[in-house]
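Hi P.,

Sorry for the delay on this. The queue was packed all week, but I finally got your sequence through. Input first:
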Amino acid sequence: MTTIEASTTLAALIDDRPELAPLLERLELDYCCGGDRSLETACAAAGLDVEATTRELAEFAGDPAPAPWRDLDPGALCDHIESTHHVYLTAALPRLDALVDRVADVHGERHPELNDVQRSFRELRADLEPHLMKEERILFPMIRTLETTDEAAEFHCGSVRNPIGVMLAEHDRAGELLAELRTLTGGWTVPDDGCASYSLLYGGLAELEADTHLHIHKENNILFPAALASEGQTEADHQERHTR
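Then the structure:
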Protein backbone atom coordinates (compact mmCIF):
# COMPACT_ATOMS: atom_id res chain seq x y z
CA MET A 1 0.00 0.00 0.00
CA THR A 2 1.34 3.40 -1.05
CA THR A 3 2.02 5.86 1.75
CA ILE A 4 1.23 9.53 1.32
CA GLU A 5 4.61 11.16 0.82
CA ALA A 6 6.02 13.95 -1.32
CA SER A 7 7.42 11.34 -3.72
CA THR A 8 4.08 9.53 -4.15
CA THR A 9 2.56 9.89 -7.61
CA LEU A 10 -0.93 11.32 -7.91
CA ALA A 11 -2.08 8.22 -9.81
CA ALA A 12 -0.93 5.96 -6.98
CA LEU A 13 -2.77 8.12 -4.45
CA ILE A 14 -6.07 7.72 -6.31
CA ASP A 15 -5.67 3.99 -6.91
CA ASP A 16 -4.88 3.29 -3.24
CA ARG A 17 -7.22 5.90 -1.75
CA PRO A 18 -9.99 6.84 -4.24
CA GLU A 19 -11.71 8.88 -1.50
CA LEU A 20 -8.98 11.50 -2.02
CA ALA A 21 -10.37 12.43 -5.45
CA PRO A 22 -12.63 15.27 -4.22
CA LEU A 23 -9.77 16.86 -2.27
CA LEU A 24 -7.39 16.62 -5.24
CA GLU A 25 -10.10 18.21 -7.37
CA ARG A 26 -10.47 21.07 -4.89
CA LEU A 27 -6.71 21.58 -4.79
CA GLU A 28 -6.64 21.41 -8.62
CA LEU A 29 -4.00 18.68 -8.59
CA ASP A 30 -4.30 16.85 -11.92
CA TYR A 31 -4.19 13.11 -11.23
CA CYS A 32 -5.46 12.03 -14.68
CA CYS A 33 -3.32 13.49 -17.48
CA GLY A 34 -0.67 14.38 -14.89
CA GLY A 35 -0.99 11.24 -12.80
CA ASP A 36 2.64 10.22 -13.26
CA ARG A 37 3.86 13.34 -11.43
CA SER A 38 4.92 13.15 -7.80
CA LEU A 39 2.95 15.07 -5.20
CA GLU A 40 5.98 17.33 -4.75
CA THR A 41 6.15 18.20 -8.47
CA ALA A 42 2.40 18.74 -8.73
CA CYS A 43 2.31 20.99 -5.67
CA ALA A 44 5.20 23.07 -7.01
CA ALA A 45 3.34 23.58 -10.29
CA ALA A 46 0.15 24.55 -8.44
CA GLY A 47 1.89 26.87 -5.97
CA LEU A 48 1.03 24.67 -2.98
CA ASP A 49 3.20 23.87 0.01
CA VAL A 50 3.97 20.18 -0.33
CA GLU A 51 4.33 19.51 3.41
CA ALA A 52 1.03 21.18 4.25
CA THR A 53 -0.69 19.42 1.36
CA THR A 54 0.70 16.04 2.38
CA ARG A 55 -0.64 16.56 5.91
CA GLU A 56 -4.04 17.63 4.59
CA LEU A 57 -4.26 14.55 2.38
CA ALA A 58 -3.26 12.26 5.24
CA GLU A 59 -5.89 13.83 7.53
CA PHE A 60 -8.57 13.54 4.83
CA ALA A 61 -7.78 9.92 3.92
CA GLY A 62 -9.52 7.09 5.69
CA ASP A 63 -8.20 3.59 6.13
CA PRO A 64 -6.45 2.44 2.94
CA ALA A 65 -8.97 0.74 0.64
CA PRO A 66 -7.59 0.07 -2.85
CA ALA A 67 -9.85 1.10 -5.72
CA PRO A 68 -11.83 -1.82 -7.17
CA TRP A 69 -10.65 -1.00 -10.70
CA ARG A 70 -6.94 -1.23 -9.84
CA ASP A 71 -6.56 -4.98 -10.28
CA LEU A 72 -8.94 -5.57 -13.20
CA ASP A 73 -7.44 -7.13 -16.32
CA PRO A 74 -7.55 -4.85 -19.40
CA GLY A 75 -10.67 -6.43 -20.90
CA ALA A 76 -12.59 -6.20 -17.63
CA LEU A 77 -11.39 -2.61 -17.16
CA CYS A 78 -12.79 -1.74 -20.60
CA ASP A 79 -16.14 -3.18 -19.50
CA HIS A 80 -16.00 -1.20 -16.26
CA ILE A 81 -15.19 2.06 -18.04
CA GLU A 82 -18.02 1.59 -20.52
CA SER A 83 -20.62 0.66 -17.88
CA THR A 84 -19.55 3.44 -15.52
CA HIS A 85 -18.15 6.47 -17.34
CA HIS A 86 -19.52 6.01 -20.85
CA VAL A 87 -23.03 5.43 -19.53
CA TYR A 88 -22.70 8.51 -17.32
CA LEU A 89 -21.49 10.75 -20.17
CA THR A 90 -24.15 9.52 -22.57
CA ALA A 91 -26.81 10.74 -20.15
CA ALA A 92 -25.06 13.81 -18.71
CA LEU A 93 -23.87 15.57 -21.88
CA PRO A 94 -27.33 16.13 -23.49
CA ARG A 95 -28.82 17.12 -20.13
CA LEU A 96 -26.10 19.71 -19.47
CA ASP A 97 -26.33 20.96 -23.05
CA ALA A 98 -30.01 21.81 -22.59
CA LEU A 99 -29.30 23.32 -19.17
CA VAL A 100 -26.48 25.58 -20.36
CA ASP A 101 -28.79 26.96 -23.07
CA ARG A 102 -31.55 27.68 -20.56
CA VAL A 103 -29.22 29.43 -18.11
CA ALA A 104 -27.48 31.46 -20.83
CA ASP A 105 -30.84 32.57 -22.25
CA VAL A 106 -32.08 33.79 -18.87
CA HIS A 107 -28.88 35.14 -17.30
CA GLY A 108 -26.57 35.80 -20.25
CA GLU A 109 -27.22 39.54 -20.38
CA ARG A 110 -26.15 40.04 -16.75
CA HIS A 111 -23.45 37.37 -16.90
CA PRO A 112 -21.83 37.48 -20.36
CA GLU A 113 -19.27 34.85 -19.29
CA LEU A 114 -22.09 32.33 -19.77
CA ASN A 115 -21.64 32.69 -23.52
CA ASP A 116 -18.08 31.41 -23.12
CA VAL A 117 -19.26 28.65 -20.79
CA GLN A 118 -21.76 27.62 -23.45
CA ARG A 119 -19.10 27.67 -26.18
CA SER A 120 -16.54 25.68 -24.17
CA PHE A 121 -19.10 23.11 -23.10
CA ARG A 122 -20.27 22.65 -26.68
CA GLU A 123 -16.70 22.04 -27.81
CA LEU A 124 -16.19 19.56 -24.98
CA ARG A 125 -19.33 17.64 -25.92
CA ALA A 126 -18.37 17.67 -29.61
CA ASP A 127 -15.01 16.12 -28.63
CA LEU A 128 -16.22 13.60 -26.06
CA GLU A 129 -19.08 11.94 -27.92
CA PRO A 130 -17.02 10.73 -30.92
CA HIS A 131 -14.21 9.91 -28.49
CA LEU A 132 -16.49 7.45 -26.68
CA MET A 133 -17.52 5.91 -29.99
CA LYS A 134 -13.89 5.42 -31.06
CA GLU A 135 -13.12 3.71 -27.77
CA GLU A 136 -16.14 1.41 -27.98
CA ARG A 137 -15.81 0.52 -31.66
CA ILE A 138 -12.05 0.56 -32.23
CA LEU A 139 -9.74 0.67 -29.22
CA PHE A 140 -11.57 -1.44 -26.64
CA PRO A 141 -12.24 -4.31 -29.10
CA MET A 142 -8.52 -4.28 -29.93
CA ILE A 143 -7.64 -4.49 -26.24
CA ARG A 144 -10.10 -7.37 -25.71
CA THR A 145 -8.56 -9.19 -28.68
CA LEU A 146 -5.13 -8.92 -27.09
CA GLU A 147 -6.58 -10.55 -23.98
CA THR A 148 -7.98 -13.55 -25.85
CA THR A 149 -5.25 -14.51 -28.33
CA ASP A 150 -1.77 -15.97 -28.01
CA GLU A 151 -0.88 -14.93 -31.52
CA ALA A 152 0.40 -11.51 -32.60
CA ALA A 153 -2.79 -9.65 -33.48
CA GLU A 154 -3.11 -7.95 -36.85
CA PHE A 155 -5.13 -4.75 -36.61
CA HIS A 156 -6.23 -2.51 -39.48
CA CYS A 157 -4.53 0.46 -37.77
CA GLY A 158 -1.36 -1.46 -36.92
CA SER A 159 -0.33 -1.43 -33.28
CA VAL A 160 -2.71 -0.64 -30.41
CA ARG A 161 -0.23 2.16 -29.76
CA ASN A 162 -1.74 4.17 -32.64
CA PRO A 163 -5.32 4.59 -31.34
CA ILE A 164 -3.96 5.00 -27.82
CA GLY A 165 -1.90 7.95 -29.06
CA VAL A 166 -5.04 9.54 -30.49
CA MET A 167 -6.97 8.96 -27.25
CA LEU A 168 -4.18 10.51 -25.17
CA ALA A 169 -4.21 13.66 -27.28
CA GLU A 170 -7.98 13.89 -26.99
CA HIS A 171 -7.76 13.41 -23.23
CA ASP A 172 -5.36 16.34 -23.04
CA ARG A 173 -7.83 18.53 -24.94
CA ALA A 174 -10.73 17.45 -22.73
CA GLY A 175 -8.64 18.37 -19.68
CA GLU A 176 -7.91 21.79 -21.14
CA LEU A 177 -11.60 22.46 -21.81
CA LEU A 178 -12.62 21.35 -18.31
CA ALA A 179 -9.98 23.66 -16.82
CA GLU A 180 -11.31 26.46 -19.00
CA LEU A 181 -14.84 25.83 -17.75
CA ARG A 182 -13.66 25.83 -14.14
CA THR A 183 -11.99 29.21 -14.68
CA LEU A 184 -14.97 30.71 -16.50
CA THR A 185 -17.31 29.68 -13.68
CA GLY A 186 -15.03 30.86 -10.90
CA GLY A 187 -14.58 27.31 -9.66
CA TRP A 188 -18.27 26.44 -10.14
CA THR A 189 -19.37 29.42 -8.01
CA VAL A 190 -23.02 30.38 -8.57
CA PRO A 191 -23.56 34.17 -8.46
CA ASP A 192 -25.89 35.67 -5.85
CA ASP A 193 -28.63 36.23 -8.44
CA GLY A 194 -28.34 32.69 -9.81
CA CYS A 195 -31.50 30.59 -9.96
CA ALA A 196 -32.02 26.87 -9.27
CA SER A 197 -31.12 26.02 -12.88
CA TYR A 198 -27.88 27.98 -12.50
CA SER A 199 -27.00 25.87 -9.46
CA LEU A 200 -27.92 22.66 -11.29
CA LEU A 201 -25.72 23.65 -14.22
CA TYR A 202 -22.64 24.47 -12.19
CA GLY A 203 -23.13 21.44 -9.95
CA GLY A 204 -23.51 19.28 -13.04
CA LEU A 205 -20.38 20.69 -14.63
CA ALA A 206 -18.41 20.06 -11.42
CA GLU A 207 -19.67 16.47 -11.43
CA LEU A 208 -18.74 16.14 -15.10
CA GLU A 209 -15.23 17.37 -14.35
CA ALA A 210 -14.75 14.92 -11.47
CA ASP A 211 -16.10 11.94 -13.41
CA THR A 212 -14.09 12.72 -16.53
CA HIS A 213 -10.88 13.15 -14.54
CA LEU A 214 -11.39 9.72 -12.97
CA HIS A 215 -12.31 8.25 -16.36
CA ILE A 216 -9.13 9.60 -17.95
CA HIS A 217 -7.03 8.43 -15.00
CA LYS A 218 -8.22 4.85 -15.39
CA GLU A 219 -7.30 4.89 -19.07
CA ASN A 220 -4.08 6.91 -19.09
CA ASN A 221 -2.52 5.42 -15.99
CA ILE A 222 -3.88 1.86 -15.88
CA LEU A 223 -5.61 0.61 -19.05
CA PHE A 224 -3.31 2.00 -21.74
CA PRO A 225 -0.01 0.91 -20.12
CA ALA A 226 -1.50 -2.55 -19.51
CA ALA A 227 -2.68 -2.84 -23.13
CA LEU A 228 0.72 -1.81 -24.48
CA ALA A 229 2.44 -4.30 -22.20
CA SER A 230 0.02 -7.05 -23.29
CA GLU A 231 0.68 -6.33 -26.96
CA GLY A 232 4.43 -6.32 -26.38
CA GLN A 233 4.32 -9.64 -24.53
CA THR A 234 2.13 -11.26 -27.19
CA GLU A 235 4.52 -10.16 -29.94
CA ALA A 236 7.53 -11.42 -27.95
CA ASP A 237 5.88 -14.80 -27.36
CA HIS A 238 4.97 -15.06 -31.05
CA GLN A 239 8.54 -14.35 -32.14
CA GLU A 240 9.93 -16.86 -29.65
CA ARG A 241 7.63 -19.64 -30.91
CA HIS A 242 8.63 -19.00 -34.51
CA THR A 243 12.37 -18.95 -33.83
CA ARG A 244 12.51 -22.30 -32.07
